[in-house]
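We modelled the chain as a single entity of 143 amino acids. Its sequence is:
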Amino acid sequence: MSLIDLHWTPTDRQLKQFGGICLIALPVLGWVATGRPRSVEAANIPLLASLAGVGLLFAMAGFLKPQILKWPFVITSLIAFPIGLVVSEVAQLLIFLLVFTPIALIFRLIGRDSLQRTIDRQASSYWQPKRQPRDLRSYYRQF
């Protein structure tokens, strides 16, 4: 089993959901592709109407005979798969650079050393005694 699983044989439920999503997503993608016009006069009405029609056909096919949408679903999944991989890697990079790196730099500037990694040449040992629990039953009461 892989980390990310492509659905080569989608269920009828997934295909119905795909058809319903196409009903909304295709006209919205057409609107975004035409530059998000603010007025009806500036919009490319034939393109938007044809995409809405295709979305309606996909939605009807999804609810009447879902297996018709198997290959559009698989092809769309294959197109979206590498995009998802790249976007997730970029998101992880941004989180690391914008969250963890500034925190680490601040800790370094203020001299915080939570792991106590500083070398003490005078110490004979780095062993730190820990307090033992008073009662063995305390292991069962962790919180």
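As a brief sanity check on the tokenised model: The radius of gyration is 28 Å. The chain has a mean pLDDT of 88.
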